[in-house]
Amino acid sequence: MALPWLVLLLALPIFFLGVFVWAVFEHFLTTDVPATLQHPAKLRFLHCIFLYLITLGNIFEKLGICSMPKFIRFLHDSVRIKKDPELVVTDLRFGTIPVRLFQPKAASSRPRRGIIFYHGGGTVFGSLDCYHGLCNYLARETDSVLLMIGYRKVPDHHSPALFQDCMNASIHFLKALETYGVDPSRVVVCGDSVGGAVVAAITQALVGRSDLPQIRAQVLIYPFVQAFCLQLPSYQQNQNVPFLSRKFLVTSVCNYLAIDLSWRDAILNGTCVPPDVWRKYEKWLSPDNIPKKFKNRGYQPWSPGPFNEAAYLEAKHMLDVENSPLIADDEVIAQLPESFLVSCENDILRDDSLLYKKRLEDQGVRVTWYHLEDGFHGSVIFFDKKALFFPCSLKIVNAVVSYVKGI
């Protein structure tokens, strides 16, 4: 009876080692690390670990143990959270939606600025615990009351769960600002990656709501604001750069929007978008709107393939304004609050920021743009990770802090 257990104990280390070796090979065969990135060896190591954990998660999912997203979330939520003596941190529920409130302990002579934060993670990763350090820092350094909103994720929940949860929790908070000591004239919404997309979508949806305080400013950190064109210059140039490859982006979009993965190529090639829709929105989506200096490396002009009606019927909801806030009407864009946009040169989503920046500026919205030549997608989460720290991470966080303190 002991022999099978002995064999299993000997086989497990070999299994885990084999998976890690596979992840290392996958990294070096498929990943690009641009020369402008600082600490390339550290980035490579972290990306190998990232691929290793995703591969393990996929194996566990196929074995019926647990889904890959839940496995990753279990790991990053196991990190110990440090208490900050300057803040009171409270876990609440707005209905069924988990939120975390950060409030400075020090007395204030007037109501404080409020920040509503939507975390990133592609609806796959990320959580209140994962982003605790970042939100704690933002609340403390800006002397603000910060509400971080949790939301339902894949594989158990799909569109429009993310938008609905964030919208409902935001409205609940906006209606109760006095309860939390927040100045209704100084509310900022902030988010990174898909959280940045939520910032754009919710700020647009709240335009014209006379029953709620107006949003004072929006902060979008490398946001995903359109699902139409995945062949923009940055999507070509950075398609294999950590930590968001084009393949992983398309897979995440399909999973969240409940689109079968067999339609990935149609989405990449743009054949799921009807010609008349392309013509309608080309003025906002065209690579011609990207400054020339961003098209100097590795970009090939592109046009969509022949229209595939079956692909459109399967994927048409990704063209809705809630999922592609870049295409909102001019009348809505013109009423948006002043904006702070962060983009990273080595990020597949760089051009989403550039296109949204132009849309806002064309409609007279004041935009502050912060671009990092050494930045990469997901870098903000490493700002307080000590040995895993990257200079660009702290640059982003401090730029956001400086901007918010001016509100």
From TrEMBL:
Hydrolase keyword on record: yes
Residues annotated as the enzyme's active site: 193, 347, 377
Entry's family note: Belongs to the 'GDXG' lipolytic enzyme family.
Database matches in Pfam families: Abhydrolase_3
Keyword Transferase carried by entry: no
Recorded GO CC terms: membrane
Gene3D superfamilies cross-referenced by the UniProt entry: alpha/beta hydrolase
InterPro entries: AB_hydrolase_3, AB_hydrolase_fold, Arylacetamide_deacetylase, GDXG_lipolytic_enzyme
UniProt domain Alpha/beta hydrolase fold-3: residue ranges: 115-266, 310-379
Keywords assigned: Hydrolase, Membrane, Transmembrane, Transmembrane helix
GO terms of molecular function: carboxylic ester hydrolase activity
Origin species: Macaca mulatta (Rhesus macaque)
Membrane-spanning residues: 6-29, 41-60
Gene name, Swiss-Prot/TrEMBL: AADACL4
Protein name (database record): Arylacetamide deacetylase like 4
